[in-house]
Amino acid sequence: MKVAPPGWRVADNTPDILPGVYGVHKVAKAGKTFIGLQAGPVYREGIEQELSSPLKKERIYNLSFDLAFSKIYGHEHCYGNLAIFGGDTPGDTSELLWVSGSFTDTMWHRWTAEIKPRASHKFISFYAYPEEKCALNSYGVVVFMDNLSTIRQILRTELTATASCNNTSTGSVSVNVTGGAAPYTYLWTPGNYRTPQVSNLPGGLYEVQVTSADGVTAKGAVTVGESDLVTSTDLTLSNCAGDNKNAISLNITGGVPPYDLSVNGIEREGNKFDNLVPGNYVFIVKDKQVCSDTLDVLIKEPDPLVIKQVDISPCSCSEVSDGSIRWVVEGGTRPYKYRVDGDMWQPDSLHSNLKTGSYRYEIEDAKGCGETGTASVTSPWQNCLVVMPSAFSPNGDGNNDLFRPKVYDAVTNYQLKIFNRWGSLVFQTNDPKRGWDGYYSGMPQSSQAFVYVCSFNTSRNELKEYRGTVMLVK
Description:
The chain is mainly beta. Helix content is 0%, strand content 51%. It folds into 5 domains: 9-153, Galactose-binding domain-like (Jelly Rolls); 155-224, Immunoglobulin-like (Sandwich), CATH 2.60.40.1080; 230-299, Immunoglobulin-like, CATH 2.60.40; 306-377, Immunoglobulin-like (Sandwich); 385-472, Immunoglobulin-like (Sandwich).
């Protein structure tokens, strides 16, 4: 028989009030009864109601209900599917407003339908809706419905926000409203703004209440974030002073592209800058929102590699190779390396065992920066010899204050001993460059003659021994 819930009427065929029909004993979701609807390709059941307040064109409404499926309802079914229609007369299904889509869950579940009629309607109806084929029988769709809410007009709001620049109030919010009757009123908090768009806001959470001309309200919230515009730099410095091969690359992320860039107050394009001279560079990056990020980059090249001093030790005589060159270097990047006449590089700043002649030297630092120059190693004597002075005057006048041989040879196994007239040893050394200052046991000696014995091997490995006397003169 045709049965509908109180306040509803049968729209088509024979819907049932359950439980108790076709052996259905399912417990209602709310109250004691629920409605059962079934349908097939040429058959459908539905209920309808004339609305106390018609659905209005382009307004938005929602309503909620519980739905369930039953595999057996008099016979087998394939799925559940519910459709909502709007119309102007009883039985009118001129506009399909909403479809649940097929489901097979036999448990009660809450559904919410949101509808937006393309035309105004006085009637609303609910039908079992056969969208898919069912091989089991020609009545393959069944749907149980319970706990139907009232139809409520709503407003749909879409909120957007743009971030605020760091430490400034440049954010904005806006709300776009659909449904309801224009004009709308707005109330934003905090701030009590009353327009759909608000600018010059700091970061934070903003709530809005929108009210349509027919009294429907909606609330929403949106967060104005802080701009995530960030700029970092990759700095490449010249290896050598004066190369001007410095480079700065900018890595710009976040914010609202595209970006504008200025360098030291001049607008520039790109994000890589090459062949820069040393100095201070101020980069200002601005995005489309005019948020900005400022970076101050100092380019300082290594100090110039400078040869401060070249010390040359001459050969003892022209026949030997005991000359040397020593460099004092500053600046650049340590450690340094040295070479002479294209020989192997060495880390030692002293280059020894050189014979007389002119030399071209090269010096490089750890980055390959270099300096070159020439130096001449000479010899004061053509022939190699050792000369023993006959007197010295240790009076502190800087002239002939020490007694030592004048060695013009690359001697080895050197030894010098000095004795007083009683045969006591008053001085000895194995260093040809060290001399006697006329003191013995911390006391200056008086003017007198002293005996010396000096032995050594010449550069030709000939053993020599000189004996004689030297006069200490005050």
